[in-house]
Structure formats: structure tokens, C-alpha cells
Design brief:
This protein is α/β, with parallel strands linked by helices. Helix content is about 60%, strand content about 10%. The protein has four domains: about 130 residues, Response regulator (Rossmann fold), CATH 3.40.50.2300; about 140 residues, Reverse transcriptase/Diguanylate cyclase domain (Alpha-Beta Plaits), CATH 3.30.70; about 100 residues, no CATH class; about 100 residues, Arc Repressor Mutant, subunit A (Orthogonal Bundle), CATH 1.10.10. The protein contains 24 helices and eleven strands. Strands 6, 7, 8, 9, 10 and 11 form a six-stranded mixed β-sheet that branches.
Length: about 550
């Protein structure tokens, strides 16, 4: 989708063109309006404009002067000028200097639409040429190792995407891992201290290390690896020709190869590593649980020993006592509340209680685990806002701060959902108040600084970005900021005409216009008469 800017000092013409064409059908997502060349240049600073339609003759900066600046600063923008018959030769000369097209006034909507559509076709062709398929393919291939690593990091962290999404990514990344495939995981811990070693050298060693593992395993196994948050190298291995009854043979082969990897790394790279290896598990559902088991093996069995190898042959039931995994899968409750993602937090809460409900060996300690995790997230959010629990929850705060370890499932679920909803309601009311306060401050500033106010100065006054201020003002008031400033200035001009004997040129300067003729034109467009005609009628 593209964005267009319409520029003319006849406000009625700009407004008519802006509302008279099927912009969305044409591929235009935003139509910006400017009533002078100066205002157009200001808008160009803050919006990604693709097309400009401008009058050739305007008070102040002319259309050709505007296009000249645009060509210098925003060379990719396509431009169309509107011209009268007496300017026809002038317009033709302008085209030879880089203007895309011109239209003779009066311009019909059909004629303008035809011209704009032709320019959009040019933009699309230019975009297709820019996005060269071969270059993209090359860049994608170059990025493939990082994409594969990123996906595996998500899986071990418990971020399991929908089956169809995962299947598509595996195919796209050319990974031969499929649902319900038997897999083995082994984790490698480097026992060397790289303090003082530059990052490039460390990266080369890690690349060499994973390359050794890949070369040793790849003849018989599909291999996939990533580096986790603890700087362990995590590998998944899937047999290439696995069949029922051969599981033991493949397990023995995998252990032999893993030990060979450990040996070859020490031999060629002079690096000591420790390895832990899993039993068979199922891809992808059991990947997070197996990964946490591997971490536990390092802490519980390997400890500070070096050059160790531990093979976890214990038959494990993943329903044995363990933490509620959904509580700690990223994004966590604290992360979601940090950015006020209320719907996502509610969905996560539902998943937590679904997991809790499905546990056959659910204990009171699991209830306690949920309560403590939620209270930590709620406390963080409340205190980050500079509030106490009583400020948001009122009398319910006493209940929240008194842990009832005897809570059963349904009371805990009800308390959790209600507490989250109260935080959400508080956030909504706070946001409404903040937005309303910002708009009041902007309006007050515009009224007080009517002579000098601009979008940039108003944004600076409230310490926000001009684009945000422009969008917020439109959303909250239903009026463009530039239209509001125009209205304020015209109202101020009326007061001067009624209450003072200032000359028209002086009034123009008092309300922010350096050129009296431009002010007179705006005044007449706004009120249907010139300032002098209005004063004469008093």
C-alpha cells in the first residue's frame, strides 16, 4: 500500500480530491493534505510519502519549488503537477526536468485516478526489480543456519508453534524432523575459560566444534543444533533409517558417535567438553521436557567435573512431579504485563489451568506455585505504576496478601482471572486519562501559541514524536491537527477584526501568516469573504 500527499492553497480543492477517489481500491492506504508548500515539506518529514499531487502556482513555495526540494531529498517520490492553460508550456518544461506528469485544471476525479493508477504501476514494477529473487534467495541461504538455530531455541524454550506452522518451517529450513519422530538430545558444555579471548576467535571455535559433530553424525543421523542461554551446545539427532526393533542399536550407535565427537574436539581443537545424552523421546512435544532434563543432569550428576559423559538411560514418565511448564514458558506473565498484553496474559492463564487440570498427580504445592508466580507478576505491575495493592484492589487487597495454601482449583482460577481483569480495567482507565490529558495540553498550547504553533512545536511541548501526536489528535478529536490550527487562527483573526484597528497585514502576522495574500485567501476559503469584507460588515 502507498501514501499520497495532495498540496494546494485552495483548501476546498484539496478536500474534494482527498474524499472523491476510491483510494483504497487504488492501493493508497493514507491520503495526506497540505494547504501550502511549507506545510507539505513539514508533512514529508514525518510520513513515508510515495506520490505527490501539487498545484503549480501557490503562495509562498510554488509547486515546482516544492518538487525541486522533493527530488533532492526524496528522490523516489513520484510527482504530478496541476496547471492551468496559461501555464501549459511551463508545465511541459517541468516534465523534462523530472516531474512525472501534469494535469490541466479543472481536474476531474476520473483523470486524476487514471494518472495515479499509472504511477502506482510504475512503483510496483520498480519494487519488483528492486526485490531481485536471486539476491533474496542468496540472502536466505546465508541466513539459514541462524534461522534453524532460532527455531530450535524456541522449541527447547517451550514455544511450540501450531503443527502446520512448525511443519512449514521445517520444510522451508530443510530440516528432516517430523512429528512423532524418535529423537535423541545431547548437550555439550565447553570446559574452557574464554575470558580475554575475542569474540571472533570464540565464534570460530564454536563453529568448528559444531562442524565436527555434524560431520560425525550426519552419515547416519539428521542433526540440528543451537546454542542455549547457558552457552551449552544443544543437539537433536534423528536416525535416517529408524525402524521398530532397532532402537537399542541406534542408541548404542548414537552414544558411540557422541563419545567420538568429544574425543575429536579434544584432539583437533584442544578443548575439553562434557556431554549428557538423553533417552529416546518424541518430536516435538517432548523437546522442552527433555532439554530441562539435560540441564538437570549437568547440575545433579556432572557438577564441576570436566570431560564427563553421562547417558540418561532411565525410563522417564513426563508426568512425574515437576514444575508447571506453562508458567515459565516465554513470554512469562511478568513479560506480558510489562507491555500490557492483556489478551495474551488471559490466554496464558487459561493454558496454565488447563495444564494444572490435566495433571494426574496435581498437588497443593502446584497451587502454591501458581499463586506465587501470579502474585510476583501482579506486584511488579502495581509497583511499577507507583501504586499499592489497595489503590487498585481496594478491600480485596487484604485477601490477595494473605496466602491461603489450602485453595482448591476453582477458587484459585476465579481469583486469578478476577485479579487480572482488575489490572486490565485500571490500565484502560489510566490510558484514557493520559491520552485525554495530552490532547488538553496540545489544545491549550495551540491556543496560546497561535502565532507560532506547528506540529513539531506541539510535539516537542508534550515530549512525543510528531507522527504520534498527529495520529493521536486525529483519533481523539476526529480532526486533523493542521485543520484545528487553521480553525484556531481564523477564530483569532475574527477577534482581531472585531476588537482592534490593526491592518490586515498586521493581523495576518499576529495569527501566524507572514504573507497577507495567503492569509486573505485562507480567510476567504474559510468564511466565504475577505477579512476586509468581514470588517466592513460589522
Amino acid at each position: 500500500m502507498y501514501e499520497i500527499l495532495i498540496v494546494d492553497d485552495h483548501t476546498h480543492l484539496v478536500d474534494s480530491l482527498a474524499s472523491g477517489l476510491p483510494w483504497e481500491q487504488m492501493g493508497i492506504s493514507a491520503v495526506h493534505k497540505a494547504y501550502s508548500g511549507e506545510e507539505a515539506l513539514e508533512l514529508l518529514q514525518y510520513h513515508d510519502i510515495d506520490l505527490i499531487v501539487t498545484d503549480i502556482q501557490m503562495t509562498g513555495i510554488s509547486g515546482l519549488e516544492l518538487i525541486s526540494v522533493v527530488r533532492e531529498k526524496w528522490a523516489k517520490i513520484r510527482s504530478v503537477i496541476l496547471t492551468g492553460h496559461d501555464e501549459f508550456q511551463y508545465a511541459q518544461e517541468a516534465i523534462r526536468t523530472g516531474i512525472c506528469d501534469y494535469l490541466l485544471k479543472p481536474v476531474s476525479n476520473e483523470e486524476l485516478e487514471k494518472t495515479i493508477r499509472a504511477l502506482i504501476v510504475e512503483l510496483e514494477l520498480e519494487g519488483e526489480q528492486l526485490v531481485n529473487q536471486q539476491k533474496l534467495s542468496y540472502l536466505f541461504r546465508e541466513s539459514m543456519p541462524k534461522l534453524r538455530e532460532s527455531l530450535l531455541r524456541e522449541l527447547i524454550a517451550g514455544k511450540l508453534p501450531p503443527h502446520s506452522v512448525l511443519r512449514d518451517k521445517l520444510n522451508l529450513y530443510e530440516l528432516s524432523f517430523h512429528e512423532q519422530n524418535p529423537i535423541l538430545m545431547f548437550c555439550m558444555r565447553i570446559e574452557e575459560d574464554f575470558i580475554g579471548t575475542d569474540l571472533y576467535s570464540v565464534s570460530l571455535l564454536e563453529y568448528a566444534l559444531t562442524n565436527i559433530a555434524d560431520e560425525i553424525f550426519s552419515p547416519r543421523f539428521h542433526i540440528w543444533n543451537c546454542k542455549d542461554d547457558h552457552d551449552y551446545q544443544v543437539f537433536l539427532a534423528c536416525p535416517k533409517q529408524f525402524s521398530e526393533g532397532t532402537g537399542k542399536d541406534w542408541m548404542e550407535e548414537a552414544e558411540r558417535l557422541a563419545r567420538l565427537v568429544q574425543h575429536q574436539i579434544k584432539r583437533f581443537l584442544r578443548i575439553k567438553v562434557s556431554l549428557v545424552m538423553s533417552n529416546w523421546s518424541s518430536f516435538p512435544s517432548e523437546v522442552p521436557a527433555v532439554y530441562h532434563t539435560m540441564l538437570a543432569l549437568f547440575t545433579d550428576y556432572i557438577g564441576f567435573q570436566t570431560e564427563s559423559f553421562f547417558h540418561d538411560l532411565q525410563e522417564r514418565s513426563f508426568e512425574e512431579i515437576r514444575p508447571l511448564s506453562e508458567l515459565y514458558v516465554a513470554p512469562t506473565f511478568m513479560q506480558l504485563l510489562e507491555v500490557e498484553q492483556w489478551s495474551a496474559a488471559e490466554e496464558k492463564m487459561k493454558r496454565v489451568f488447563e495444564e494444572l487440570t490435566s495433571r494426574e498427580n496435581r498437588t497443593k504445592e502446584h497451587m502454591f506455585e501458581v499463586y506465587i508466580t501470579l502474585m510476583q507478576a501482579f506486584s511488579y505491575y502495581v509497583h511499577k505504576k507507583g501504586k499499592r495493592f489497595y489503590d487498585i484492589y481496594g478491600r480485596e487487597a487484604d485477601k490477595m496478601l494473605k496466602l491461603d495454601a489450602g485453595w482448591s482449583m476453582e477458587p484459585l482460577r476465579e481469583w486469578s482471572m478476577q485479579s487480572l481483569q482488575q489490572l486490565k480495567s485500571y490500565s484502560g482507565s489510566l490510558s484514557d486519562n493520559l491520552r485525554g490529558d495530552i490532547i488538553k495540553r496540545i489544545i491549550r498550547f495551540a491556543n496560546e501559541q497561535v502565532k507560532d504553533v506547528t506540529l513539531q512545536s506541539a510535539a516537542d511541548y508534550v515530549h512525543l514524536h510528531p507522527v504520534y501526536v498527529s495520529n493521536l489528535f486525529k483519533a481523539e478529536t476526529g480532526e486533523n491537527f493542521s485543520n484545528y490550527v487553521l480553525r484556531v487562527r481564523m477564530d483569532a483573526a475574527l477577534q482581531h477584526l472585531k476588537q482592534t484597528d490593526l491592518k490586515i497585514s498586521q493581523i495576518a502576522q499576529e495569527v501566524g501568516y507572514q504573507k497577507p495574500q495567503y492569509f486573505i485567501k485562507l480567510f476567504k476559503n474559510h468564511f466565504g469573504m475577505t477579512p476586509q469584507e468581514y470588517r466592513s460588515g460589522l
